[in-house]
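#dry-run=false #mode=assembly
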Amino acid sequence: MWPNPIDYFSGLIERETGIVYSESNIFQLKMRLEEFCRVEKISSVDQLAKLFQEKSIQPEQGQRLFDMATNNETLFFRDPKYFTSIEQFLKNDVLKTDPREIRIWSAASSTGQEALSVAMTLDQLSKKMPMPSFSILATDICDKALIKCKSGLYTDFEIKRGLSEDKREQYFRKEGDLWKAKPEIFSKIHYNYNNLIRSSVYDTFHIILCRNVLIYQKVEMRKAVVDTLFLQLDVSGALLLGAGETLVGIRDDAKTEQIDGVSFYKKSKLTSKRTA
Ligand SMILES: C[S@@+](CC[C@H](N)C(=O)[O-])C[C@H]1O[C@@H](n2cnc3c(N)ncnc32)[C@H](O)[C@@H]1O
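#status=ok
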């Protein structure tokens, strides 16, 4: 007997992405699945579940289903104090170790505003003090969001969410009805698909931003993701979570440095010896 299709999809989505649809938001999943069927011209959610279970779904259709399960809410300079404290952290910690290049990872970057905000922050810093070049890796599980990232194009509405007029003039130019990020920031960012629960990123970073994504996962999954992210921190590096997120109960051996109310989670000396 087939399981209830909504339970089937919540299980599938959790296994493949880590995103949990619990009792409180299962109705949202039902609505999203119905909309998905309408767009994909599939007669019902039951029929969709059958297609998945019989493995007669196209890979692109499967990817679109996982895209549909994600929440891509983001904006430029989301929680602005993060960006002033990133500047402080680079000045007071990372730059003192004399790195050849500064590497930053926006893990779960959604449509790219976070990575571009970091690029603007570092570009501004490089005008105030000597510093090495920097590169930013922006990854997400959602293909649709990555396609937008790679276009570098934003609507008026998106631009107005978090970006000052000054920064808009400095870093974006009008392209038809849209705004395109200028090469001085856009060229610093590399965009890639990555699933945090099966990470395929093999590099180390001075800052990893993993904001507003672990909230959708169960504690055990958060622990596993954070362990992987810690392996990818440079010895002088730090992990940043979203404003409402914490490592308490997830990774209690992390050293926490508070800068202007933002927690920078670093490897403890013992962990760095094990993983550096
Ligand atoms: C709410 S957005 C946060 C975007 C940005 N970090 C911010 O704080 O503004 C959450 C993003 O996490 C992505 N995501 C969810 N599960 C993921 C996973 N397992 N691996 C990578 N990205 C994931 C979603 O596709 C979505 O774009």
